[in-house]
Amino acid sequence: MNARFLSGAALAAFVICGGMSTYATSAETTSGHEQKGVNMKWEQAQLGAIVKADDLHISVFREDMVNYGTPTFIWCVQVGGDLYVRAYNGVNSRWYQAALKQKAGRIIAAGKTFDVSFEPVSGGVNDQIDDAYRAKYSTSSYLAPMISERSRAATVRILPKGSTQ
Description:
Layout: H1 8-16, E1 28-30, H2 44-53, E2 57-60, E3 72-73, E4 76-79, E5 82-86, H3 94-102, E6 104-109, E7 112-120, H4 125-136, H5 143-146, H6 149-152, E8 155-160
Parallel strand pairs: 1-7
Antiparallel strand pairs: 2-3, 2-6, 4-5, 5-8, 6-7, 7-8
C-alpha cells in the first residue's frame, strides 16, 4: 500500500496498526524477530556493525507515542553483547528524559533503522562502559565528560524489539 495516497487519518491508522514504519525514509527498518513489543539481545553481527559504524542517531517517541523526535547523534559502545549510550548533558538531557519516560523509540545506525527500548543503567557495569568509551574514543576531547559522573548517571542500555532476551 502506498502511504502517499492515504488521508491524514487513514495514514495515522495505517502507521499505528503496524502497516508501515514511520521515519524510515531511506534507511532499512528492522526489528529483529517479529514478536512486537518484546525485547531481545542484539545479533552479534548487527551489534558489531552498529558500534563500528559509529553513526548512531537516537530518536525517542514524542508524547503521543506515535511520532518520533528529531534524531540525535550519540556515541555508543558495546559491553558484554549489549549496546549502551550516555547523555553528554547528563540526566537533564532532553532525549534521556524522554527515553526514560517513553521507554521506546528508534535508532538509526549502520544504514538501518531499529525499533528499540531503553533501560536506565546503574551500578558496576558503568565501570565496564567507561572502559569501552576509553578504548573507542581515546583520542577525543569529549571522552572525559562522557565518563564523568554527570554522564554516567545518564547511561542507557538499548535493546532491539522483537524477540525474548
